Amino acid sequence: MSIALRERRVFAFANVHYRLSKPYPVQFAQPTETFAISSVMHTATPDDLRRAGVKATDSRSLVIDDFSHDWRDWYMLSPDNPQHWQFWTRKLADPKWTGQPGYRLTFDAQSKQANELVVVLTENFFRSYRGQQQDFVAVAKLTGGDKWQVVTLSPDDFRAKGGEGVLRSWANVDLLGLRAYYDEGGKLLGSKTWAGPQPKLRYLRWTEKH
Length: 210
Prior knowledge:
With 210 residues, the protein is an all-beta fold. The chain has one helix spanning 46-51, and strands spanning 10-12, 15-26, 29-38, 42-44, 63-65, 75-77, 86-89, 103-110, 115-123, 134-142, 149-153, 159-160, 173-179, 181-183, 188-190, 200-208.
């Protein structure tokens, strides 16, 4: 059971995957070898959970992803393209991994060659009731080589699309993306000519300011 039981609803549904006898064509993507069916979603309110005697046993975690399972908790766009790859996760929308005031977003990165890694945070993704959906972008300069490099980012390192304003807090961040570049419609962040293989990451985490 997730944390913050008294304040949040619990949603549950099931995904069932079947392996196809042969690959099936998919529009705008590689042929798929699996077929998935999703069940109806069920909702339990905080009152429902209290009446059932459910107790929260989970707690917040400073470690968002240690990448021991590679990119399992991420979805990838154009992962085989050397320039246009994008890796995204929704884990920051979960109370377990939501950033708190005073936290900084930190990860270790390794890039064989010097590059600029673009980090994108999206507020209010599919949550227009909270406000306008908006991207905030930061650029991490990777020096290149075999050593791991620590990247640390504060909210004010993330600038709004168009450069007007900065991210005020982590509270409404629903998506975190890693990209080779971000095109703001005339202003390019990063590069469309990423050098060398894609970067490696480890220990995406929250660290506190001292």
